[in-house]
Amino acid sequence: MATTPSVLGSAARDAGEIAAELRREFDVALQQRYGTQAQPDPVLATLFHAFATQIGRLYKEAEYAFPLGVLDDLLAGLGMPPRLAQPAQTVVTFSGITQRERLPLETELVGTARSGERFDFVPDDSIELAPTELRFAAVYENGRLTTISGARPVKGGSFTMPSTAALALGSAAPALFLALDADPAHISGLGLLLETLPLGGPVAQAFERTPWHLLD
Length: 216
What we know:
Radius of gyration: 25 Å
Helix content: 25-40%
Strand order of the largest sheet: 7-6-5-8
Number of domains: 3
Number of strands: 8
């Protein structure tokens, strides 16, 4: 899968490179100013690493958010229409489904663009449609479980509001928990769309290489 090309090119560096450069600059300055060589110091090394981590986060932010933010401000200042996303695929929502049925490849779907133009397309793959609702959604990270809005615990009830609580799972990696209420058939034939921004960013890359566990 293609990833988003680098905006800053070779200028973007990780925390390790930044920490090493800080150490080199410190050694040179110490030698030039006091005529002595730096000795191994774990406290100083930790400070360099912590500072480099913060700078590395700024580089990542600049890699994706800053250039797009500058472009948005420029378009707004010129009074031009805001830029629109250019998705690689079209996402379709189906409603009024009461029982599972398969959507074959030869199914022709008709859509209408904002300009009024009509366009026809077919699915990329044959999928199954089933009455499904999201009952629970949460993210676990750094010892805390944070629920995500949009889930409806009880059919016809109110949606879950975001909240967070401490959860001790030892050294468990960050995880996304989803509970789906579907029909009795297996959910392997259904699809799941996760929209992550920016395209090709760290969240999308993490989803690409992370295993999924299905509990029935």
